[in-house]
Structures are given as C-alpha cells and as structure tokens.
Amino acid sequence: MNRKVVLYTVGRIIILEGLLLLIPLAVSLYYRESVTATAFAVTVLAALVIGAVLMVFTRRGDRTMFAKGGFITVALSWVALSLIGALPFWISREIPSYIDAVFETVSGLTTTGASILSNPELLSRGLLFWRSFTHWIGGMGVIVLMLAVMPTESGRSIHILRAEVPGPVVGKLVPRLRDTAKILYVIYLVLTVVEVVFLLCGGMPLFDSILHAFGTAGTGGFGIKADSLGSYSPYLQWVITAFMLLFGVNFNLYYFLLLRRVKSVFKSSELWCYLAIVAVATGVIVGNVLPLYKTFSEAFRHSMFQVSSIITTTGYSTTNFTVWPELSKSVLLILMLIGGCAGSTAGGLKIARVMLLFKTVGRDLKKMLHPRSVGVVQVSGKPVDEQTLAGASSYFVLYVVLMIVIFFVLSFEPAMSLEANLSAAVSCFNNIGPGFAEISSNFAGYSDVSTVVLTLAMLFGRLEIYPILFALTPSVWGKKG
Q1: DSSP 121
Q2: 113-145 b/e with 16+ CB inside 10 Å = b?
Q3: Under a CB-based contact definition with an 8 Å cutoff, are residues 195 and 217 in contact?
Q4: Is residue 479 over pLDDT 60?
Q5: Where are the beta strands (DSSP E) in 83-209?
Q6: Integer Cα distance of 70 and 157 in angstroms
Q7: What does residue 353 show for φ and ψ, rounded to 5 degrees?
Q8: Do the Cβ atoms of 101 and 444 come closer than 8 Å?
Q9: Span between the terminal Cα atoms of the chain, in Å
Q10: Residues with Cβ within 8 Å of residue 1, at least 6 apart in sequence
Q11: Contacts of 319 by beta carbon, 8 Å cutoff, 6+ apart
Q12: What interhelical angle do 142-149 and 177-201 show, nearest 10?
C-alpha cells in the first residue's frame, strides 16, 4: 500500500474540513458567541496545521493509488474528520465528554442523527449550525466534495470514490470523475436551496430552514428542537416529507432528467420498488394508527412522514411513534433495515442490494427445479454480472454478522432493554437515528464502551463495512498494492 499518497490525501481532506469550519465560526461571530467562536478558531487552526504537516511530509513520491489504498484513505479520512470535528463541542464544554462529542460528530457526518443530547435547543447557534452542517457534508460524502472542488490526480480518484459512495455498483456519469463529482454536488446543492425556499414560504425562520434543509439533504435528521418537527405546521411537515423522499432517490436519475432521458428514469426498477414500499408501508400504518388521531388526514400525514423519514434513514419525527401499535413499529423496523436507493444520501441495506439478493435467491430456486435452465438476473432490464451478485451476497453476510456482534456487545448494558439494544444496533448501523424504548429520545444512557461501539457501528454503516474493516485488519497495512 502506498502510505504516502494515503496520508497526503488525508491531509488534503483535513485542510478542507478546516476551511469548512470557518462557516460555523462566522455564524458564532454573527451571534456574538465568544466561547463557541474561540472553540471553532482553535479547531480551524489545528485542522490546517495537521493537514499541512501531513501534506508537506508526504508531498514527494509516487502518486499511484490502488483499491486497497482507496479503502484505507476513506477510513482514515472519516476517522480524522470525526476526531477533529468533535473538538468544538468539547472545547466549548457544551458537550463535556470527548467520547460523547465524537459520537455526536460521527452521527452527524454519517447522517445518522442519533444524539446524546436531551435538549439540542440549549446548544449555541454556532454549534447547532455545525451539528446540522455535518449532515450536509457527510450526505454526499466529504471525499466526493474534495474531488469536486480540489484538483487531484485521476489515477487515484475512482478508488476512493468507490470506497465512499454507497451502493452495490459505483460508476461515472461522465468520462472525467471530477466532473461526475461536480454534477452530483450541483444537484445536491440545488435541491437543498429549493427546499430552503419552500420552508421559508411556510414561515420557518431562515436559520431553522437552513438547518432542516441540511438534515433533509443529508438524510441525517438532527433536530434543533426537543420535539424534532412536531411543533411546526402541517405545511412544513409535508415539505420535509417530500424532500426526504427526493433525497432518498438515486442521484443518477436526476442527472438523466437534466439530459431529458425520461425513459431511463421510468425504467428504473429500484425507483418503482422504492415508491411501492413507501406506499404499502404508509397504507398499513395509516390503517393501524387511525384510532389514535382525530382525523384521517392527521393520521395520514404522520404516517407518511415517519415512513419517509425511516426508509430514507433521515430520522426526523412529527409525533411519538414509539407509542404506536406493535404492527406499525414492526413496519418501521423493517424499513430501517431496507433503507433508501443506492447512490442517494440514505443509509440502510439499500433497495438495489435487497432486489439483487431476492432475485439471486429466485434464480437459485429456479435452478433447483430446472437444473439445465440458464438464469440471468436483470435489474431495470439490464443483466447483472456474477461479480456484482456475489458482492451483494458477501455484503449481506457481513451485514448480519456485524449487526449480531453490535447487539451482543450492547446486551451487557444493565439498564437497557432488549428492545432498546436491538433498535440501537439497527439504528446506528443503518444510519437512521431514532430508536425505541429507553433510547426513544436520546442515547445518553449508554456507557462509554457502548458509545464507542455505536460510534464504530455508524462508521461501518455509512462506509458500507469494507473501508473500516480493512483499516482494522493489521495484515492489510503490511502488504503492497
């Protein structure tokens, strides 16, 4: 593995984070929050120094990066971003525990939305902004952002892009990878701005609109109020419902719309499956929770919102869904596992991967009945190669194993119920945020050991296992290539 190019790239990403931290620093200065502004200033300085040192000492040498280096680069980058990004919370003492501060930052960057805070309204404006801004940064991927705004050698770009972007298959929209990154971020930015405009039209204050748009775009869901979105108007809740669903769609489809390739969009079997799941889940929950609400429209609004929030792994809420009947909670738990579309900002197993797994099982069952048949798995009318199918199956095995390990470790918590630990494992590993029972409001009840485990679970989930798994494997570091 080419360690120099790995550390050089990590240094560049740390510098980029330092520059991004200037924005919440400006927010703190605007609201005259001297303590918070000082915390951001120290963090910016630390990020720029650390990044510059890494780049200076590794600037010479071969710039070639292979697949292994791409995975390690992504893992180290996200860990470094999290450790540095947690400093403002800790230095300002608004989150006194550094472990908790790292948990909050990782939850933001991985767009999980799980929090150790019981009342986020007590945070300063600068830290509230940074907390939600991490969703927007992590949603599309900070390394994708680096490729979009900072020049980089093409020889190593595709490997780090494949290691960071979620989904069973990652490709380029256009021949140049940097142009692909730019297209993705332009679409991402435009949708975010449009959402802010719609929220402003509904009377939401500018600061609140920007932060909720960050949370929706990144499908993160950090609320800035204790009741999340429960106190906002039905109009605002419907706007966020619509945009959660939009950000749960594969961004490639938006690019096809820009090219007026409408047929390509309507041929997407993943999109139709996504919409069908949302429709069926909403229908089941509406019928189940209708007695709890005064009108059908109220029950439908809350049901549609929570289905959209959970399947896109955003995690916002408009009502206390933990008191819903068991059937509704079971549906939400299933949606937690499935997640949104591949190539979106949503987490979870991904609908494309679930489709591949079911189609593979169907093909294998057919072969058992008809051994001479030639089964070809197709998605959106196109055949899927065996390597992709094998990759989906391998990922699912690792997914289940890690989920069991996380749940087992959490089981040692004496004050937490089985329901809480199971939902915590599912929530953090799938980058969803909310949970049931004792963690329905926040994750502050877990010990430091469990908090670290859940922090790693969020990183595993956002980076889809392999980068963090390789980074924790000693043999990977000692081999060339």
Answers
A1: G
A2: bbbbbeebeebbbbbbbbbbbbbbbbbbbbbbb
A3: yes
A4: no
A5: none
A6: 8
A7: -70, -40
A8: no
A9: 5
A10: 66, 68, 69, 72, 476, 477, 479, 480, 481
A11: 230, 302, 306
A12: 110
| Three-state secondary structure call for residue 442 | coil
Cα 460 off chain centre by = 11
Q: What are phi and psi of 271, to 5 degrees?
A: -60, -45
User: Which amino acid appears at position 474 of this protein?
Assistant: P
Q: Which residue's structure tokens are 């959970």?
A: 310
Distance separating alpha carbons of residues 93 and 114, to the nearest angstrom: 20
Q: What is the mean pLDDT of the chain?
A: 87
Chain centre distance of CA 314: 8
pTM: 0.89
Contacts of 39 (CB under 8 A, 6+ apart): 87, 88, 89, 91, 92
Kindly indicate the confidence band of residue 237, based on its pLDDT and cuts at 50, 70 and 90.
Answer: very high
Lookup: tokens for 167: 């989904």
DSSP 97-117: -HHHHHHHHHHHHTT----S-
Question: One-letter amino acid identity for 333?
Answer: L
DSSP 275-330: HHHHHHHHHHHHHHHGGGSSSHHHHHHHHHHHHHHHHTT----SS-GGGS-HHHHH
Q: For 98-148, how does the pLDDT look when each residue is reduced to its tens digit (9 = 90+)?
A: 999 999 999 999 999 899 998 898 999 999 999 999 999 988 776 666 665
The Cα 265–Cα 354 span in angstroms is: 19
Q: How far apart are CA 343 and CA 321, in angstroms?
A: 28
Please name the residues in contact with 186: beta carbons below 8 A apart, sequence gap of 6 or more: none
Task: Retrieve residue 65's tokens.
Answer: 């990066």
Report how far residue 276's alpha carbon sits from residue 113's, in angstroms, rounded to the nearest whole number: 25
Q: What is the dihedral of CA 353, 358, 362, 367, to 10 degrees?
A: 40
Give the position of tokens 């999980």.
112
Q: What are 19-25's contacts with CB under 8 Å, separation 24+? A: 20/133, 20/137, 21/47, 21/85, 21/88, 21/130, 23/129, 23/133, 24/88, 24/126, 24/127, 24/129, 24/130, 24/133, 25/126
Residue 249 CA, chain-centre distance (Å), reads: 13
Above 50 in pLDDT, residue 155? no
* pLDDT per residue as tens digits for the range 12-34: 899 999 999 999 999 999 999 99
The helix or strand, by DSSP H or E, that contains position 50, with its residue range, turns out to be helix 34-57
Residues in the chain: 481
- Report d(CA 52, CA 415) in Å as an integer: 45
Question: Judging by DSSP bridges, how do beta strands 378-379 and 382-383 pair with one another?
Answer: antiparallel
Question: Can you state the angle between helices 3-20 and 142-149, rounded to 10 degrees?
Answer: 90
